[in-house]
Amino acid sequence: MYDTRDRAVQGTPDGQSRTIRHEKHPRDNKPDQQSESSRNFVSESRFGFWFLGTQTWEQHVVEAALDDLARLIETPRAAYPVVLDAGCGQGKAFRVLSEKFKPRQLIGVDADAHGLKYAHRTALSGKLPVTLVQGDCA
């Protein structure tokens, strides 16, 4: 049901290849069948897109927020089966999510195809196994 393109990621720390998938649900190609939230999607401004890709964003917002999230978990685990990054944007949280929560599967979902291209690059450059899905979370 999904149009999936797989790309192997070479040279991961354990020497194994990983696969990053970009999945697009067929519904996303048909504007008349999109959800209300998809029709209301507003893309990021150029300045906003740039800022969300900076070290300032990653360190002072993403890392701080995920530190807070980790503290809120009453019974933390050594690893989690699945972690979802809803609204993953450029994937700036992938590294921190992987380090803090050690998911067996990390999924990034975003409505913006342009941002997902950067998220894909982020995952590849960080050698992070991530499944990317274009769509909304509705």
UniProtKB/TrEMBL annotation:
GO molecular function, one term: methyltransferase activity
CDD domains: AdoMet_MTases (cd02440)
InterPro entries named among the record's database cross-references: Methyltransf_25 (IPR041698), SAM-dependent_MTases_sf (IPR029063)
Ranges for domain Methyltransferase: 83-137
Signal sequence extent: none
Keywords: Methyltransferase, Transferase
E.C. designation(s): 2.1.1.-
Region Disordered, annotated ranges: 1-41
Any GO BP annotation: methylation
Pfam family, one: Methyltransf_25
Primary enzyme class: transferase
Name of the molecule in the record: Methyltransferase type 11
Organism of this sequence: mine drainage metagenome
Highest classification ranks of the organism: unclassified sequences, metagenomes, ecological metagenomes
